[in-house]
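Exam revision sheet. Question 4 asks you to relate a sequence to its structure. Input first:
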Amino acid sequence: MPYIGCTKKLLDELGIKEPAEEVDHRGLRGWHGNTFRLYRSKAVLLVNDETRFAVFIPRMVKKDFVNFDQIFRDRFRQALEWANVDSARIAKALLQCGGCSFGKTHNRSVLGTMNDMKQAIEFILETELGRLPESEWELRRITMLLNKTPYQGKDLGKYVFAAVSMHKMLNGL
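Answer key, structure tokens:
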């Protein structure tokens, strides 16, 4: 079960008054999430703690936050497909991603990476589209740019490419 360390804004959107206690957040169980506004619409960015693999979800509405577990699973599957992960490994990954628990953030390095990704998203949208992504191709392009960018963090010790790191993690399942 994934533990998503949420910012205060995301906890409020999810309607969570009592955040879950921190649990083991290694591998696919450790994520961070944030919500922010883009072009008068809410978006969510989720980042895996170990790999920095990003799942970008634009155009969120109130009812989407009620069914957030399923939306996360669907978009995570989609992002893995876009990263050319084979269907057997996607199935194994999704087995570990049932029923999310939501708590407070626990890693400032991941939060820093998320801020960098948010700025990258805003830049791409402003310079290339001038709007939110409307097609699957546009969403895929943004997600894959995030996952093909090198990131560094104190907890990583070196630069990592999110898509490559996620492939390595899934090979170990």
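Marking note for examiners. The chain has seven helices and seven strands.
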